[in-house]
């Protein structure tokens, strides 16, 4: 539904009243949606969004069909006011030159986006419908499974994305189609592949047969990350083709999940000759429980100085901008291994 100027105030009041009634009816719903504390999640909670439009007829005429996780969606051919509620896809839009008007607080805090967010407004950690209404979006990005998509579709086109369904290159190309930036998306993939092609032989020569682990301490032990869950895994295992310890390969990579949870006692079986690590960004426990433990300090990688600290506020992301920054750090780290 497009709101023009003549009916906008009335429609806005009606919409806010409907949202109030809906929230009241859902007041007894579980706060965490049934998610268990032992499963890491890269996804920020999706939030509703809204649109009102002063050029309704013209904008309607310039639409295309996009195949999304919520079906075929008619979207603006060249969206100008994107609201990204996912946080983890924000870097794609920034890399394409399709800067959103509103993003999650987690993306606002990503140090890799510094200097790229002028004019972008925060949706907070949990955006309210009223907050998003103020941004007048013409396209809303959410995760699949977001509650209330049907209501959002009455306000603006809603595109739902299933996290991890596509690898980051294919996802970049898809977002290029969505935003009318296909040439930019293809150019990014081409330059990325060229850079990897130049670096990969150097990295493989430096690392040789050494194994590499990505380990994050948390309250119940450690998370072991693989090839598709951020933290450099896409580069370390996917692009550079480096080896993971057998347990990590089986449980975090071959399983397709991208991660596994282990107890501290199992650490020696999952620790590689080279370790990338940082505290778990979704947990407030003290990582010293692991880092000061004799098991950790007895690892060959620790003794050899082959442990490299990731940034928990930035390296959880696997969007193009974050990957470019990770590539520089990972390359420098691996080339330093003797």
UniProtKB/TrEMBL annotation:
Fe/B12 periplasmic-binding domain boundaries: 81-338
Question: A Pfam family for this UniProt protein?
Answer: Peripla_BP_2
| InterPro entries the record matches | ABC_transptr_periplasmic_BD (IPR002491), Bact_iron-sidero_bind (IPR051313)
Q: Where is this region: Disordered?
A: 31-59
Q: Which domain of life is it from?
A: Bacteria
User: Signal peptide: which range, if any?
Assistant: 1-31
Keywords noted in UniProt: Signal, Transport
Q: Which GO terms describe its cellular component?
A: outer membrane-bounded periplasmic space
Q: Where is the composition biased (Polar residues)?
A: 33-54
Q: What is this protein called?
A: Iron-hydroxamate ABC transporter substrate-binding protein
């Amino acid at each position: 539904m497009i709101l023009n100027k003549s009916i906008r105030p009335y429609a806005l009041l009606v919409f806010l009243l409907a949202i109030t009634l809906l929230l009241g009816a859902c007041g007894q719903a579980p706060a965490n949606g049934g998610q268990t504390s032992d499963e890491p999640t890269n996804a920020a909670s999706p939030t509703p969004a809204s649109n009102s439009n002063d050029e309704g007829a013209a904008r309607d005429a310039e639409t295309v069909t996009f195949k999304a996780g919520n079906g075929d969606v008619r979207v603006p051919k060249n969206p100008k006011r994107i609201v990204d509620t996912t946080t983890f896809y924000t870097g794609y839009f920034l890399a394409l030159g399709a800067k959103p008007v509103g993003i999650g607080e987690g993306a606002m805090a990503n140090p890799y986006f510094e200097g790229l967010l002028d004019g972008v407004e925060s949706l907070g950690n949990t955006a309210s419908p009223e907050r998003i209404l103020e941004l007048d979006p013409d396209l809303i990005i959410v995760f699949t499974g977001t509650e209330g998509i049907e209501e959002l579709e009455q306000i603006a086109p809603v595109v739902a994305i299933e996290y991890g369904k596509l690898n980051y290159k294919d996802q970049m190309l898809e977002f290029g189609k969505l935003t009318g930036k296909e040439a930019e998306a293809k150019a990014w993939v081409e330059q990325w592949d060229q850079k990897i092609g130049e670096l990969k032989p150097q990295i493989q020569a430096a690392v040789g047969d050494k194994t590499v682990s990505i380990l994050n301490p948390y309250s119940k032990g450690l998370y072991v990350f693989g090839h598709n869950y951020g933290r450099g895994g896409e580069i370390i295992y996917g692009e550079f083709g480096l080896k993971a310890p057998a347990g990590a390969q089986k449980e975090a990579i071959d399983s397709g999940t991208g991660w596994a949870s282990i107890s501290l006692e199992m650490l020696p079986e999952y620790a590689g000759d080279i370790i990338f690590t940082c505290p778990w960004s979704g947990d407030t426990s003290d990582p010293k429980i692991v880092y000061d433990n004799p098991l950790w300090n007895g690892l060959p990688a620790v003794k050899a100085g082959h442990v490299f600290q990731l940034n928990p506020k930035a390296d959880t992301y696997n969007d193009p901008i974050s990957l470019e920054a990770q590539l520089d750090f990972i390359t420098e780290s691996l080339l330093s291994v003797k």
